[in-house]
Amino acid sequence: MHSEYFLKKHEIEAKQWDLLLDQLQYAASYSPFYKDLFEKNQLDLKAVKDYSDFQKIPITGKKDLETDNGQFLAVLSKEVIDHVTTSGTIGKPVSFFLNEADLQRLAQNEYHSFLMTGMTADDVVQITTTLDRRFMAGMAYFLGLRQLGAGIVRTGAGLPQLQWDSIERFQPTYLIAVPSFLLKMIEFAEQNGIAVNQTSIKAVICIGEPIRYKNGELNALGSRITSAWNIELFSTYASTEMSTAFTECQQHRGVHELSDLIFTEILDDDGNPVAAGQIGELVVTPLRTRTMPLIRYATGDMLTWHDDICTCGRNTKRLGPVVGRKQQRLKFKGTSLFPQHIQESLNSIENLDLYLIEATSDEFGNDIVTILIPEDQKNEADDLKELLQASLYVTPNIQTVERKELEKLKSPKNARKPISFLDRRSAFHKR
Ligand SMILES: [Zn+2]
């Protein structure tokens, strides 16, 4: 058991602060981008004594990574082992690199994440996510499972039949999966007479999509899975840029920060930390990364943090689920909300099988939100208005569109999967 996370809060913070200062020194010495940034801003790193000094370091954004990608490399290129790209959910994918030390760090990250879920060396884990295609996550899981000493089944993404065949054949106890794929597996099981609750699977490490609301309860997706399949779901939160994964412990009260691997700030629009429970943007400084150190990197992810004690005994900070992307925030009749909030409400209307949330700007730069629904479901419009009024205190416009037309709008060119939010606001007003 790694005792570090069970120390007292102030002890954890003191150790983390030392690692943060080390990381600053490392970036200043080896990263061309940060050498330049610190010089330009005349920052004396020796003068960084506390958080308010640290706050003077400018935020690094996705744009910096896109324009100066090569400038972030802090080792000789021959030292690089793994070459990956970011997911490119927003913007274009960026190249990312890992050396031996970074790969070991990733293994350690997942090892501690798995321990948090109650996994042991006796478990067999089926990885139903991609291990190749330049993704970091699948390989990180593999390395972490090796460190734990657990059994591994590498089925990869998709192919419900292969998944169920492997479950029957190798009797894995955990899955690592994208939550919406679990619905596909359930559907396949129902069609093929597989009794899901009689299989060896007891829990799933979920990746890529939120399964909980901010209050910790399972969201529509999470409930749909567990009502059909009686398994324990664990949330995780990660990205290539962070090179770090956050995982839920068995108390399911937010994902735990691994304090020796990452330093997090949750900031308001003025760059000041928000209080626990408030929504802010997550800004990260991954610790102990060597190939591409990032200092104060703005993730664009909006979320909350918890400061109450977790009964698992780990005293590290915990983060809530991502409630939206900063870029997609809607300023709507005096309140601000995220497309994801509207989506969560709409997903609870059973008869509504197709919709698109559209944002435009009026002449004064205010956001206008319109929900597009298929012509053949126009009877749902009143219910929909009422529901959104009750759950979000806003009444967006509702517009009916021919089903075929709506399907086309949901799959724009270059989109990897159908979209639920169409941002047509003038760029100036987006922030
Ligand atoms: Zn915990």
From TrEMBL:
Organism: Christiangramia flava JLT2011
Its EC number(s): 6.2.1.30
Signal peptide: none
Keywords: Ligase
SUPFAM superfamilies: Acetyl-CoA synthetase-like (SSF56801)
Highest taxon in the source lineage: Bacteria
One annotated GO molecular function: phenylacetate-CoA ligase activity
Alphabetized Pfam families for the sequence: AMP-binding
Enzyme type, top EC level: ligase
Protein name, as recorded: Phenylacetate-coenzyme A ligase
